[in-house]
Design a protein that fits this description.
Layout: H1 6-20, H2 28-42, H3 52-66, E1 70-75, E2 78-83, E3 86-92, H4 99-113, H5 118-137, E4 145-147, H6 149-160, E5 162-164, E6 167-172, E7 175-181, H7 186-189, E8 197-201, E9 204-205, H8 211-218, E10 225-231, E11 237-243, E12 245-247, E13 252-257, E14 260-265, H9 272-284, E15 292-296, H10 305-315, E16 319-325, E17 333-337, E18 348-352, H11 359-369, E19 374-377, E20 385-391, E21 397-406, E22 422-423, H12 428-439, H13 446-454, H14 461-468, H15 478-489, H16 491-498
Parallel strand pairs: 14-15, 15-18, 18-19, 19-22
Antiparallel strand pairs: 1-2, 2-3, 4-21, 5-12, 6-7, 7-8, 8-9, 8-10, 10-11, 13-14, 16-17, 16-21, 20-21
Helix pairs in contact: 2-4, 3-4, 3-5, 9-10, 10-11, 12-16
């Protein structure tokens, strides 16, 4: 228990209640519950062990961030709140490290700050909570974060998908045209295709309506039924009843350039791996099969780790895909691929750039390490940390880094990123020299890649810089795809760029 001078406690809390309840309320219970839940979740999971008292004191620096005249000091088993040089509250620190005890202490100091700080009152409870986690996580790692309630709800919807039909529409003159259809969605199942004209929704004609009105008519609760009438590209009009369902956003976009299939993967959602596999199967079943496949991961910031692993599994025989390591036993996993390779004898190229991160890097690393794909582009971000999510009592969410990812050969993605086998970020002359060398069977990047793949945790900052130096991170460029097509057209250069799968750990 926190022992507080009775007169001081009555004075501070009485004033705080009088001033803050009138302005919307200081919910002490809510604040305590959020801090207690968060500390209970964070302490055993973060990569480096940090005591709960230290985490709490770091978080309380958020009061200073909101109002520089306020300061929290932990000294001689006491917690003190100052405003300028005047003490506002002086309490005994909890004797144990129980998250609940320290949450109560943090909430008590925060309550005491409200009547004496206009900036903190202006920030409100939500601003105080945000400041608490911002200050705490700034001392842990770049990726752990607190997401407030409204934004957290939107994030949850994006991860799970939204209830709908899985189609997007646009205007063509006075008509409403289907612009895109998500694979496996209710719209796709009944046969709607891009280019079809939407004629009516539940009997209401769409002609002369704007796309926003149509989108509102198409939306509805999961499980609700809507009747659509549409005219296909063959001129025939069809009608069907569709049941609205949760539809993850489409993340795989296929385009064929002559005999090369290019699959742009924008992120990794619940359906990415299955849609990727289906797109490849579609191309392989065509009368003129493709000569090569390009996975475009440029600008892909990541997403669900399991989807990256499953996507890699589709192209690989049985073996290691990735490993995650952390303090929490639940954070430690060894991911394997199973027997059976998709497009086994088809050359595979992966395009990356300085924005390729996280799950996208895991996929690129797995296919490169296992000798299945040539990576083309520039150094990637190097985000190999994995976050676990904790829903909080206020409706917000914590994303807490609890593990880091290793490529199949045991090197850490964090910091290092994925070093391409063909570098396009050094200029056209350097690229031309590299392609000429590959055509003769010599791989100029071989030694740099071997050094990168031989790195082990922990990697010093100076080593990270040296390992990344041979191919600086940059924006994606048109030359990336040109190189991919050139390698597919030149088997000898592709084989030299690929490198033999290196010896596993």
């Amino acid at each position: 228990m926190i022992r507080i001078s009775v007169l001081l406690m009555l004075f501070v809390i009485g004033r705080a209640q009088a001033e803050t309840l009138a302005g919307g309320g200081f919910d002490l219970g809510r604040l305590t519950a959020v801090y207690s839940d968060a500390l209970t979740f964070i302490a055993p999971r973060i990569l480096d062990p940090i005591p709960v008292p230290q985490l709490t004191v770091w978080g309380l620096q958020g009061l200073t961030a909101l109002d520089p005249t306020m300061q929290v000091v932990a000294k001689d088993s006491r917690l003190q709140l100052f405003r300028q040089d005047q003490i506002v509250l002086d309490v005994l620190a909890p004797k144990d490290e129980a998250p609940a005890s320290w949450a109560k202490a943090a909430a008590a100091l925060t309550l005491a700050s409200f009547p004496v700080s206009t900036p903190i009152r202006r920030a409100g409870i939500q601003g105080v909570i945000q400041g608490f986690f911002d200050e705490m996580f700034s001392r842990l790692d770049p990726y752990s974060r607190y997401v407030p309630p409204v934004e957290a709800g939107e994030d949850r919807a994006r991860r799970a998908g939204r209830a709908g039909l899985g189609l997007a529409v646009g205007q063509r003159g006075q008509l409403i045209e289907v612009r895109s259809v998500v694979r496996d969605s209710p719209a796709a199942i009944v046969g709607l295709r891009p280019g079809d004209i939407l004629v009516a929704i539940d009997g209401q004609r769409t002609q002369d309506q704007d796309p926003m009105t149509i989108a509102a008519l198409l939306s509805g609760a999961e499980g609700s039924v809507v009747t659509l009438s549409w005219r296909g590209r063959d001129g025939h009009t069809r009608e069907a009843q569709l049941v609205r369902a949760m539809v993850p956003p489409e993340t795989v976009f296929a385009q064929r350039f002559a005999d090369v299939l290019v699959l742009r993967i924008t992120s990794f959602s619940n359906s990415t791996a299955s849609h990727l596999a289906l797109s490849v199967q579609d191309a392989l079943s065509e009368p003129h099969p493709v000569d090569g496949i390009v996975l475009d991961l440029r600008e892909n910031r990541g997403g669900l780790l399991r989807q990256a692993v499953t996507a890699a599994d589709a192209f690989l025989p049985a073996g290691l895909v990735a490993t995650t390591i952390g303090r929490d036993p639940d954070s430690m996993n060894v991911w394997h691929s199973t027997e059976g390779e998709l497009a086994e004898n088809v050359p595979l190229i992966i395009l990356v750039d300085g924005h390729t991160a996280s799950a996208a890097e895991i996929l690129a690393a797995a296919l490169a390490d296992r000798g299945r794909a040539v990576v083309v582009g520039s150094e990637t971000v190097g985000k190999g940390m994995v976050q676990t999510i904790d829903p909080l009592p206020d409706g917000g969410e914590l994303f807490v880094t609890w593990s880091q990812t290793l490529g199949p050969l045991g090197w850490p993605i964090q910091g290092l990123g994925v070093l391409p086998q063909v570098c396009t970020s050094l200029g056209s002359e350097a690229l031309s020299r590299q392609l000429a060398s590959l055509s003769t069977g010599f791989q100029p990047m071989a030694e740099a890649i071997r050094r990168s793949r031989a790195a082990r945790v922990p990697v010093s900052a100076s080593d990270v810089l040296e390992i990344r130096a041979p191919c600086p991170a940059s924006e994606g460029r048109a030359a990336d795809l040109e190189v991919a097509r050139a390698l597919i057209a030149n088997p000898a250069a592709y084989a030299a760029a690929l490198l033999s799968p290196m010896v596993d750990r």
